[in-house]
Amino acid sequence: MNIKKFTLIGLLTIFCLTGLFLTAARAEWSDYGDNCGDAEVTGPNSIIIYGYIDPWSSPSDEDWFKITVDDPGTLTIYTTDTNWDTIGDTMGTLYDGCGGGSSLIAENDDAATANENFRISESVGEGTYYLRVASGGNNYGTYHLHVEFTARTTDWTITASAGTGGSISPSGAVGAADGGVQTFTITPDACYEVADVLVQGSSVGAQTSYTFTNITGDQTIAASFDPTSDSTITVTADSGGSVSPGPGPVPATCGADKAFTIAAGAGYLILDVKANGVSVFDPAGPGGDLWFNYTFPSVTADQTLDATFKLAGSQRCLHRHFRCAPGYPGTRRTGQHHVRTGRLRQHGLGIYNRRKRRPV
Description:
This protein is mainly beta. The protein has two helices and 28 strands. A five-stranded mixed β-sheet has the order 1-3-8-5-6, with no helix packed on it. Strands 12-10-17-14-15 form a five-stranded mixed β-sheet, with no helix packed on it. Strands 20-18-25-22-23 form a five-stranded mixed β-sheet, with no helix packed on it.
């Protein structure tokens, strides 16, 4: 038999029979504080190897660890099996303090990840936390404790969202400094209006701007929108002609075009057409100064349309030998009679009787 192998077997036998094996093995293990007052201090992003849950302890053994983080972030803690033996079932409990007044943050007994006995992952602020590791059943032995911490790049997050019909800016997950200020702008699309704004689920009304002040935690803001009612185009026309549709308030569907026809009455011509106070009349168009079409494109707000007219003969009596005759209805021109002979000078479609001065 190999002498080294024989010697090793002999030593192991002696250790087992005399109880020295336990003492020798436990020299590699650590039994950490049995209460939070004696908790082992460990920093974030560290590993405690060969923690030990003592099967002979009465009452049941448990290990306590004190973890201090300097920034807000995510604290993740879990245990894994060792190569020496397998505890099989540790349970972890995380507290925000030690003793009276402390609160439970999280507890886990069975991690879903292979070779992990428990896993706790929590968003925490700057401070000191206490972890209790105990047997999750009747299993005892060694474990490795892993403490991981990821600091947040910003202190807090404001989640901003907007429904159909508008937008909020900035949007999505918006970082905010602790105690800071953050303003959001709510903008409805064309033909929509702000219906409501919810902050942390509570209504703050139909606002187009909202400011968070003294931010001390994660927040939410959500904007909703409703379609607007129809716009109104206010139409006016003097006695020399007409506007159709109109006059008066004319409804216009939001986002749609709205067309109008302006027509001069008998003996009148169009003088001007104004949309929202600005002249849009073009006498060189197909209707000349007798009729004119105007269209408001994509109406999204209230508008005005105003038409004015002039007498048709006011600019036709230019020769000293002629006097004005009434205009023929439906035409833009007038006839003129010679003062001495009574002969009709025809300027339009109407042929005028020189005595009765009416169309024939």
